[in-house]
C-alpha cells in the first residue's frame, strides 16, 4: 500500500496536518476505492457517529468501536438486543450516544435486507459514483447531488444517521470520488488506484 507513496516532504491536503492521527489515514485510506462490504458498513456507521463531532474523535476510538461492534460484522450486529445497547452505553471507549448506537443496530438489520435484495452493499453503493462531469472542485462542498441521492435511498430503506453530509463524507473516504486537493501528492496515487479499480457490477 505504501510503496508508491510520495515522501513526507511532498504537499498534502491541508487537513492531513491537523492531528497526528491524520497523515497515515490520509495517505493510505482516504479516497482509495473500497468494495469490501464490512469496511463500507463500518464507514457508514462511523460517519454517523461523527455527526456533530470531529473525525479525529472517531478515528482515535476506531479500534474501540470495532471491538464494541463485533468488527462491524453485519449479521452479528443485526442480532444485537437492547441488552447490547445498554452494554455499549457503558463502554467508555466509544461515543456513548443512544440514538447513534441504536442506529448502528438498525442499520445492520437494514443492511441485511439490502444484501438479500442486491447481493452486496458495494454493488448498491457504487451505483452512486458520480460521473466526472458532475464532480465539483476538490474540497469545495460538503454535499453533492450524488450524496443527496444516496442519502435519500438509504433513508427510504429505513437507515438512520445517513444524511447528505454524512453520505458525502462516506463517498470521499471510500473512493467514490477523489477529493484530494489539486496540489496534494496523494491525489494522483488515488487516481491510479481508481483507474485500476472495477466497481461491482449492478
- Output the radius of gyration: 17 Å
Mean pLDDT: 95
CATH architecture: Orthogonal Bundle
Tally of contiguous helical segments: 11
Number of domains: 1
Description:
The protein has 202 residues and is mainly α. It has one domain: Endonuclease III, domain 1 (Orthogonal Bundle), CATH 1.10.340. 51% of the residues lie in helices and 0% in strands. The protein has helices at 22-28, 37-50, 55-59, 62-68, 74-78, 82-89, 98-118, 121-125, 145-156, 164-173, 187-196. The longest helix is centred in the middle third of the chain and has 21 residues, at 98-118. The chain is globular and about 50 Å long. The relative contact order is 0.17. Its EC number is 3.2.2.20. Pfam families: Adenine_glyco. GO terms for molecular function: DNA-3-methyladenine glycosylase activity. Keywords: Glycosidase, Hydrolase. This is DNA-3-methyladenine glycosylase I.
List the helices and strands and how they pair.
Layout: H1 22-28, H2 37-50, H3 55-59, H4 62-68, H5 74-78, H6 82-89, H7 98-118, H8 121-125, H9 145-156, H10 164-173, H11 187-196
Helix pairs in contact: 2-7, 2-10, 6-7, 9-10
Give a short summary of the structure:
It is built from eleven helices and no strands. The protein has 202 residues and is mainly α. It is an enzyme of class 3 (hydrolase).
List keywords for this structure.
single chain, 202 residues, mainly alpha, Endonuclease III, domain 1, 11 helices, 0% strand, globular
Amino acid at each position: 500500500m505504501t510503496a508508491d507513496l510520495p515522501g513526507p516532504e511532498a504537499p498534502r491536503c491541508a487537513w492531513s496536518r491537523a492531528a497526528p492521527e491524520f497523515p497515515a489515514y490520509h495517505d493510505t485510506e482516504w479516497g482509495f476505492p473500497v468494495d469490501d462490504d464490512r469496511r463500507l458498513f463500518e464507514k457508514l456507521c462511523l460517519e454517523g457517529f461523527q455527526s456533530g463531532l470531529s473525525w479525529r474523535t472517531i478515528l482515535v476510538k476506531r479500534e474501540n468501536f470495532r471491538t464494541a461492534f463485533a468488527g462491524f460484522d453485519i449479521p452479528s450486529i443485526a442480532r444485537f438486543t437492547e441488552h447490547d445497547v445498554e452494554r455499549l452505553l457503558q463502554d467508555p471507549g466509544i461515543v456513548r450516544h443512544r440514538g447513534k448506537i441504536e442506529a448502528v443496530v438498525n442499520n445492520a438489520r437494514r443492511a441485511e435486507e439490502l444484501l438479500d435484495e442486491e447481493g452486496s452493499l458495494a454493488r448498491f453503493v457504487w451505483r452512486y459514483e458520480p460521473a466526472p462531469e458532475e464532480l465539483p472542485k476538490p474540497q469545495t462542498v460538503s454535499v453533492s447531488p450524488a450524496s443527496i441521492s444516496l442519502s435519500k435511498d438509504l433513508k427510504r430503506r429505513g437507515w438512520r444517521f445517513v444524511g447528505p453530509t454524512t453520505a458525502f463524507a462516506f463517498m470521499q473516504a471510500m473512493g467514490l470520488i477523489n477529493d484530494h486537493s489539486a496540489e496534494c501528492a496523494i491525489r494522483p496515487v488515488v487516481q491510479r488506484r481508481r483507474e485500476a479499480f472495477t466497481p461491482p457490477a449492478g
